[in-house]
Design brief:
Helix content: 55-70%
Largest sheet: 4 strands, mixed
Oligomer: single chain
Radius of gyration: 21 Å
Number of domains: 2
Order of helices and strands: EHHHHHEEEHHHHHHHHHHHHEE
Number of helices: 17
Number of strands: 6
């Protein structure tokens, strides 16, 4: 499953699949399908006030205001103008629904937004959200609202979240040494990867080997289905950070920590099926699922180092060739 920003053309294509025969589709939906649709739609609409309040509280926090002001070099007047647009957007959010009886041709989306809409709209695939927990749907909506606000004014304009995952673990060999290592297949040192996984979560090497095996299996699936671009997408990762803060109850000025992620690694170690483990993780929290996949795709850099950098993103500002 995925959630992302899509083009106007893609939006219209997906909408047409659902709405061109809306009456006939409604006719083939069974009564039970209709009840599930209306029930899920009611939950989604009922959550908008609380999700909007989450964002308003987050934005109104003095720490958040100072970070946005500093990161963008705003004066008080400019900050007020941007905040007015933020709050105006939040107050006008509307839903459009697809996925009445089936997700056929729906692309696997939970929800998405499109830049350029005349009003803030979150497109929701009701079918895909059926049976999901309230917490799951809240994360989805928080994620999509981040995109809507990003369209107005990124809170961190020079956000380079991908750099948080790009940690030089060791100087790479060059020249003749690199050629010899590649020739004999020794350029990669799995033991070093296992060491990093082990140190990130405080687990023994056998456990770290299992973590690596599980993630490599899932990454191979994602690579074969051409989803790497989504895993490393900067704007999506920006939304995942606020999604994780919502999930773990992290307030402005507080940090994401290893302890937030450790329970999910513990669950992995108790699992004997990588497919089922990741299906459940994605079904519980796509933000967490893709965040950890990004970590794995970058060859498991020390997670604490990543979090130290992620926790400063709202303050990040480009200055003379470096991020401060």
């Amino acid at each position: 499953m995925k959630r992302l920003i899509i083009t106007e053309e893609e939006k219209n294509r997906i909408k047409s699949l659902y709405f061109r025969n809306l009456i006939s589709e409604g006719a083939i939906c069974g009564e039970e399908d209709k009840k599930k649709f209306e029930s899920t739609k009611k939950i989604i609409e009922g959550l908008l006030p609380s999700v909007s309040k989450f964002w308003i509280d987050w934005l109104e926090d003095p720490i958040t205001k100072q970070k946005i002001k500093s990161a963008n070099n705003f004066d008080d007047k400019k900050l007020e103008e941007v905040y007015k647009k933020y709050f105006d957007t939040i107050s006008k959010i509307k839903f459009e629904y697809v996925g009445f009886c089936t997700d056929k041709n729906g692309g696997g989306y939970y929800a998405w937004v499109t830049q350029g809409d005349p009003e803030p709209i979150i497109y929701v695939n009701v079918y895909n959200n059926q049976g999901k927990s309230v917490e799951f749907i809240e994360e989805v909506l928080v994620h999509e609202i981040q995109h809507l606000l990003y369209f107005i004014q990124p809170m961190t304009p020079e956000l380079k979240i991908d750099s948080c995952f790009t940690i030089n673990n060791k100087k790479q060999p060059t020249g003749l040494k690199k050629f010899i290592l590649n020739l004999f297949g020794l350029s990669k040192k799995p033991s070093k990867i296992v060491d990093r996984i082990s140190s990130s979560f405080g687990i023994d090497k056998n456990s770290a080997e299992k973590v690596k095996y599980f993630f490599e299996t899932e990454l191979n699936f994602q690579i074969k289905t051409d989803k790497v671009g989504y895993i490393v997408n900067t704007n999506e990762n920006y939304s995942r950070v606020i999604e994780l803060r919502k999930k773990f109850g992290v307030k402005p000025g507080q940090d994401l920590t290893i302890s937030n992620f450790k329970p999910y690694i513990d669950k992995l170690l108790l699992s004997d099926d990588s497919d089922k483990y990741f299906e459940k993780l994605n079904g519980e929290s796509p933000g967490l699922y893709y965040f950890l996949l990004h970590w794995a795709y970058k060859k498991y850099p020390d997670l604490q180092t990543i979090l130290n950098q992620v926790n400063t993103l709202a303050m990040q500002q480009y200055d003379k060739g470096k991020y401060v």
